[in-house]
Extracellular solute-binding protein
Amino acid sequence: MTSTRTRLLALALAGATLALVPGCGGSNSESSGPASITVAGMPTSRHPEELNNFNRNISEFTKANPDVKVVGDEATFDVRTFQALLAGGKLPTVFYVPFTEMQGLIARRQVADITSAIGADSVVSRINPAILKVTKDASDHVYGVPIQAYSMGLFYNRDLFRKAGLDPDKPPTTWEEVRAAAKAIQTATGVQGFASMTKDNTGGWVLTAMSYANGSTIASADGRNATVDNNATRSVLEFYRSLRWEDNTFGSNFLTGYNDTTKAFAGGKIGMFVQGADAYKVVVSNMGMKPDDFGIAPLPQGPQGLGTLGGGTVAIINPRASAAETRAAIKWLEFVNFRKYDSEAEAVADAKAKVADKQPVGDPALPLFDQATTDRYLGWVKDYVNVPRQNYAAYFATAQTLALVPEPPAKAQETYGTLDTVVQAVLTRQDADIDALLKDAQRKVQAIIDAG
C-alpha cells in the first residue's frame, strides 16, 4: 500500500507497449548525446519546501553528472488510474510504486530488468536482502530499487494521552489496552479514541496488518489461495464491532481514506489509528501536527501474533528506456536516496538542507540497510536531527526484532478493495454477520486470484 504510505506517500513514490513521454528515449539501444530522463514524484507548488529539495537535488545531480538531463514530473501512483497510465504510455522514465505492485509488473513484463545496470559496488546491491527480494523474479533478476520501507505501527496522540491520564511513554502493547486507552481518551477529552481508514483499499490494508498481529495471513505464501476467512481476521472485526457499537469510540464517519484519516489525526481529532511509520512526514511536515504530539508504537500483538505488515516504495524504470537512460536513472536514484549513507560530508549536507527546508531528519522509518550503517548515518547527522526520537523509543526498540510479514503476494490491492467493504459493513450495520461477510470475501478474493 502507498504510504507516505505515503502509505503513504507516503506515502513518498513501464509497460511493455508504452509510448514514451518526451525525453524517455525510443528503444533499448544506445542513443547518442546526453541521456535525458523524466522523474516522477515532483512536489507541487503547494509544498514549496519539498519542491525546493527536489529542485536542489536536480541541480546538484546535474552538476555532478553533466551528461544527464533530469526533468521533474508530478505524476504519482494511484491504484485507480495506474493501469490506464501504463496503457496510455504516460509514465516517466522513473516512477514509484508500492511493494504490492512489483510481482505483477514483473510477471506482465511491464517494468525494466535493471540487473545489468547495477554494478558490483552499487549501493543498491547492499540493500537489506529481505527488502530487495520484493523487486526480484525467480531467477534473481532485479526490476526496481526500493527507496523506502515501512512497518505498520500504532499512531497515537501523545498530548491526548497525557490529558486522559495515560503515560505517552508507555503506549498500548495489546488490543485490550488499545480499547481501554480509546475509552479513556474519549471520556477525558471528547476526542474520538480510535479510527481506521476504510476506503480506497486502505480498510483492507489495515485489516490485513491487524490480522497478522492476531495470528493469520489472508493468503497462502505462494499467493494461490485466499485465507481471508480465518479466526484472526474475525477477531479484528469483533474488535471493531466492540469499539463501534459497545464503546462508541470509533467515531461516526466510516467512509474515510488515507488523507482523511491522517488529516484528522494531525488535527488532534483522533486518539489512535494503525498506519505505516513513514507517514510521519505527511502528518507532521505536511499537515502541521506538533512533533512532540506525534507518537508511534509497535503494532500490538495478540497471543498468536505473527508480527507486523511491512511494505514500502520501489522506483521502477520504463522498459522502453535505452541502456544509457537506465544507467542514468540508477545514478539518479542512488544520488538522491543513498549517497548520505556512504559519506559523512554528504550526510551532513543533506541534513542541513532538509533542516533549512523544514523537513524531518531522523524520523521513524524501517532502515533499508543494516543497523551498523543506520547507526553510522545517525551519528554523522546527530547535530541536525529535528525529530524527538526519544518519543518513539518503543517503536525503535522493535524495529529490528518484530517480525515483518509481507503483503499478500498476489492481487494485494484487489484483495484490500474487497475487504474495504467488509470493514465498512461492520462499522455501519450493528447486525452485520461477520461470518457471512468473511465467507463472501473469501469467495470473491479467491475468484480474483484465480482470474490471474
